[in-house]
Amino acid sequence: MSYPALATRTAVVTGAASGIGAAVARQLATGGARVALLARRTDRLEALAADITAAGGQALTVTADITDQASVDAAAKAVHDAYGRVDLVVNNAGVMLPNPLADGRLDEWTRMIDTNLTGALRVIRAFTADLTAAAADGRTADLVNVSSIASHVLFPDYAVYGATKAALTQLSAALRTELGPLDVRVSAIEPGLTDTELGGHIDNRELREQLGGMFDAVPALAAEDIADVIAYTVSRPRHVNLRQSIVLPTRQA
Fold this sequence. Notes:
The chain has helices at 19-30, 42-54, 69-83, 106-136, 159-179, 205-217, 223-234, and strands at 10-14, 34-39, 58-63, 88-91, 142-146, 185-191, 194-195, 221-222, 244-247. The chain is an alpha/beta fold. The protein has a 7-stranded parallel sheet with strand order 3-2-1-4-5-6-9, sandwiched between helices. The protein has a two-stranded parallel sheet with strand order 7-8. Helix 1 (19-30) crosses helix 7 and helix 3 runs parallel beside helix 4 (106-136). The chain is globular.
């Protein structure tokens, strides 16, 4: 769909190297937004930025690791130097590393918490002043956090991943009490089964095959489907906040 309201926006998208992040960046740029692409994989970002530019859009490549505060600070400076104040932040970067809790995978727990929750907080910290200032100027300002259906639905061996996503959904709700009165909208988008690289990080063969079986049984969403929902969400009139959207494939219960 076409969203003309995007033409005046300046956006930051994390996890833009692939999957939902890349699809969101393309969708926003197609609508006319200037988009800063944040992720660790520079080559992927440069290829995406080249595609967006070739299609007539505007994109800025910013290599960043949201688990590192100095990296986030440097990324925010790069965005501000190139584009000035941003009015749309899509917190999409995340990682899913399921394993039985009894395995005691502290490495995976730390990585998921630091990426899915603390990393999102680092990005929020970096750009909240931009969002509140944009809103004070009468412009539309949005913070979108990409959570997961796992924040509501219980999956065995996904306890820590689900906990991080539940925390992100709760954080979004709490932030609405702080930022809503300042006219900054906060939205949580909770996708169900979606075809991205997320499952590729799973090192447990049984769980990886189990996830593959779900994709065989249920026609999954595409990353572009979630991007369209996000573009729709941030294109509403500034007094309308679509606060929480659960997006599932039709056949997923």
